[in-house]
């Protein structure tokens, strides 16, 4: 998979943007980055698209800016010259795909049938857009269609919203979702970039789904751990369950049989995707203890942040 597409997978959501005036490009890019989505697919439906890509790419060089609704090789060239790092098209045009591959720029062409997917495979692609997603059968269609194509990933766009986002992203064949609900045209036209920043932040929070899973208490030995868990069981009816390294009281309290990370213990935060949560938190300046990472096959399921909060280490766990 192309490196740019791997980055998009970590971000999880690609805002699909229609800009009528290039003056809106800079504040929009700023709002998206501050909201936690340093990515945008700027559609070539308007005369402002090319200049908007140029402005956004120059001001935010680390932001993943792509061009969408690309229909011709000439548009590909203009978009890439302006700074676009990926190309998206509504359908699968073999000539456009070949042109992009010659230029070394990743393209996700639109598909909606097995025939489209097989043509994409014959062109050497491993990621395609599924468009229009909801109108073409949504997640059920992707699941049914993807079964024979084990190495193909999909980026559904069209009808994706905060309500169905996580249903799509939970399916392992989904690279990311394209959506426009956080960058609605009326908000851009009104210059309401605060609302776009808020909706972007809400989209990220919905995608990651952070919630407190349990609190770990460092005990000096197994006897103390058992006593601690028994106390919570007696007080609140939290059923005690003994494991290899700890004793749980219900699901919210974990008494460690020996001290682990954190002066007092640890706090576990559940998330819909440890990998995406880690990428997001790193973009906010946080760092991670890679030696603490745990995996199930090739999927990261847990990892600790560096440092402590109130004497507690903090780690992410896969829901």
Automatic annotation (TrEMBL):
Entry coiled-coil feature ranges: none
Pathway: Carbohydrate acid metabolism; 2-dehydro-3-deoxy-D-gluconate degradation; D-glyceraldehyde 3-phosphate and pyruvate from 2-dehydro-3-deoxy-D-gluconate: step 2/2
Catalytic activity from the UniProt record: 2-dehydro-3-deoxy-6-phospho-D-gluconate = D-glyceraldehyde 3-phosphate + pyruvate
Keywords: Carbohydrate metabolism, Lyase, Schiff base
PROSITE patterns recorded: ALDOLASE_KDPG_KHG_1, ALDOLASE_KDPG_KHG_2
NCBIfam families membership: eda, PRK05718.1
Gene3D superfamilies linked to this entry: Aldolase class I (3.20.20.70)
Top EC category: lyase
UniProt family annotation: Belongs to the KHG/KDPG aldolase family.
EC number: 4.1.2.14
Subunit structure: Homotrimer.
Protein name per Swiss-Prot or TrEMBL: 2-dehydro-3-deoxy-phosphogluconate aldolase
A GO MF label: 2-dehydro-3-deoxy-phosphogluconate aldolase activity
């Amino acid at each position: 998979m192309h490196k740019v597409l791997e980055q998009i997978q970590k971000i999880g959501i690609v805002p699909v943007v229609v800009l009528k005036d290039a003056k809106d490009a800079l504040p929009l890019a700023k709002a998206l980055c501050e909201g936690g989505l340093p990515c945008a697919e700027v559609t070539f439906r308007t005369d402002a698209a090319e200049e908007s890509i140029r402005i956004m790419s120059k001001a935010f060089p680390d932001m993943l800016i792509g061009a969408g609704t690309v229909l011709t090789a000439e548009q590909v060239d203009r978009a890439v010259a302006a700074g676009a790092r990926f190309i998206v098209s509504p359908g699968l045009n073999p000539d456009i795909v070949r042109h992009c591959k010659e230029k070394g720029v990743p393209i996700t062409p639109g598909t909606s049938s097995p025939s489209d997917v097989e043509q994409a495979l014959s062109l050497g692609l491993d990621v395609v857009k599924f468009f229009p997603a909801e109108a073409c059968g949504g997640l059920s269609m992707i699941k049914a269609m993807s079964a024979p194509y084990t190495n193909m990933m999909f980026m559904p766009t069209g009808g994706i919203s905060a309500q169905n986002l996580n249903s799509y992203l939970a399916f392992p064949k989904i690279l990311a979702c394209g959506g426009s609900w956080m960058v609605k045209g009326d908000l851009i036209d009104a210059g309401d970039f605060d609302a776009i920043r808020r909706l972007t932040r809400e989209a990220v929070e919905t995608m990651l789904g952070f919630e407190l899973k349990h609190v770990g208490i460092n005990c000096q030995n197994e006897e103390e751990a058992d006593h601690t868990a028994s106390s919570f069981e007696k007080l609140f009816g939290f059923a005690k369950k003994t494991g290899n390294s700890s004793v749980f009281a219900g699901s919210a309290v974990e008494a460690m049989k020996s001290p682990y990370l954190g002066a007092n213990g640890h706090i576990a935060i559940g998330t819909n995707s440890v990998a995406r949560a880690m990428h997001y938190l790193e973009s906010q300046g946080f760092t991670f203890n890679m030696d603490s990472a745990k995996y199930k096959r090739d999927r990261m399921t847990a990892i600790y942040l560096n440092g402590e909060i109130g004497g507690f280490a903090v780690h992410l766990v896969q829901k």
